[in-house]
Amino acid sequence: xxxxxxxxxxxxxxxxxxxxxxxxxxxxxxxxxxxxxxxxxxxxxxxxxxxxxxxxxxxxxxxxxxxxxxxxxxxxxxxxxxxxxxxxxxxxxxxxxxxxxxxxxxxxxxxxxxxxxxxxxxxxxxxxxxxxxxxxxxxxxxxxxxxxxxxxxxxxxxxxxxxxxxxxxxxxxxxxxxxxxxxxxxxxxxxxxxxxxxxxxxxxxxxxxxxxxxxxxxxxxxxxxxxxxxxxxxxxxxxxxxxxxxxxxxxxxxxxxxxxxxxxxxxxxxxxxxxxxxxxxxxxx
Length: 285
Prior knowledge:
This protein is about 35% helix and about 0% strand. The protein is an all-alpha fold. It is extended, with a radius of gyration of 56 Å. The relative contact order is 0.03. The model has no long low-confidence stretch (mean pLDDT about 80).
């Protein structure tokens, strides 16, 4: 017997004790609204500790209140009391639930106002012209005395009726079609592009084969004359008539070949040189 009692004690010792339910207070479930700081809440070492004269109104200014380290900023506006209810209060005069259960409340139909017919300005303007009234003031007085209205049948005919809408019509923006993922994964668009390129190449080859190859074209007299460029005769340098037959006494070129080579270079550079004789500076650097 004592062994069994000892074993039971060991089992009870290793069993987990059930935690007792924690009863929270109303203030923990619904904490009271935060109120702004006051002078009594300030303790030494806080960020909002101040020297000199300190008032409660200082802690209601959001530009002055500082946030504590590791804590949110304190509210600087005061909230209403516990008995204050937020939202709009609707004052019901229908009797509440007992009145709704007792009888069915039906709204009284309001009397419909007779629809005013539109004024017939065409007939009134025609009558004013026939009466000899031209000015705007005279027309206004004529319309007050002779208020002509369009008949109900004509008014219905002039007013456009709303278009008939089918019953199965769907309003709104049409949804975009889904992306063809299978075509993208299979490179379907690439294959279609390659097929289009091959088809265009085949069409170009067939067009080249069907094109008629013309024979060799020979130049006619008119085409040869059009291409012909008459030679330009180079005039000799101008000389005074008295010295035209005179022979040059100074020859700076060692040989005649050097002289012709220099003259040829001068003719080639005439197009890019300045001056009347084309012997000046170059037109471009």
